[in-house]
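Here is a complete protein record:
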Amino acid sequence: MKHARAIVWFFPASILLLSCSQPPQDSAPPPPAASTNDGRPKGDGSPPPYAVVRVFYGSDRNVVTNSSRRVAYGSERAEVSYGTCEVSIPRDHRMGELESPSIWKLEFREDPEKHVVLLRISPQEKMGFFADLGAHIKASRDKKAFVFIHGYNVTFEDAARRTAQISYDLGFEGAPVFYSWPSQGTFEGYPVDETNIEWTQANLKLFLEDFLNKTDAESIYLIAHSMGNRALTRAFATLVAQEPQARKKFRELILTAPDIDAAVFKRDIAPQLLEAETSVTLYASSADKALAASKRFHGYPRAGDAGDNIVLVAGIDTIDATAVDTSFLGHSYFAESSSVLADIYHLMREGTHPSKRLGLSPVTTPSGQYWVIKK
């Protein structure tokens, strides 16, 4: 979910007025950051004061032409399209920040030297896309890739920027990929987003299937945020049921702040995920105001809730991220908190159990065990 200074969240039966500010930084030491590409050289041959991260995408949004007659993507449904994006990361980038222009700093336009900016969208035909993606994966150690599925109230542009920021902050060595479904990119668009995330499940499943069959990826990490978890969990379960041999290639499902009915997750979704024999990590928080609003709207706890509602399922590692410092909404901690990013870094790089990862404390309850991220 992106930031705003004044947020009005419209539901059919209720209105939630929230205010949020820029997230403070955590005190936990960050993992090493690296760019997948250097910035384009200046005319004198010296590199500019920003890095350029190239990310791959699949999207079932409609193609539109912006004011500069360049390809862009809207919020309507369409056939799946493919391509790459180039995103700038300023050299003084702070881990977890998605730097944007601020009127408080008298910044009225994007500057790649100061901000995370979508510089370029390069559409590709399907065959060319997977050939390009496959070559990038093949050149990486362990043939790695991650696929990020964003949540509600996210534009294509912000999905690209977030993917690049995650890749940069994690120092990811493989191919960063995102799948962008037709979110309305507005707070009042929640009901439409709920409809579209259900519609996109079949397209996402086919995208992941092509990903498996058209590349040599051996270590695939699937990361979903908020409402995006609804499409990912269903698409993944269907895919591995149809292609059991694919299970070996998926290293981890990382479910962050899932906006899914908690009871439905435990009864219907979790058993399907566990059948795939792929490691599953669920990040939750009781300070997530967006999920608290979703709970009031739907009438039942969400799988991303912590506290008394924390979801505990044998075989799924649940991480309570309530203690981390993040934005007022507390919903995007997975990418804004250096503590959470550090945990994801070690999870993806080493595949270690929570009991062996620094910064986590175990909590044992009658219902099972989970881990808490320390401040």
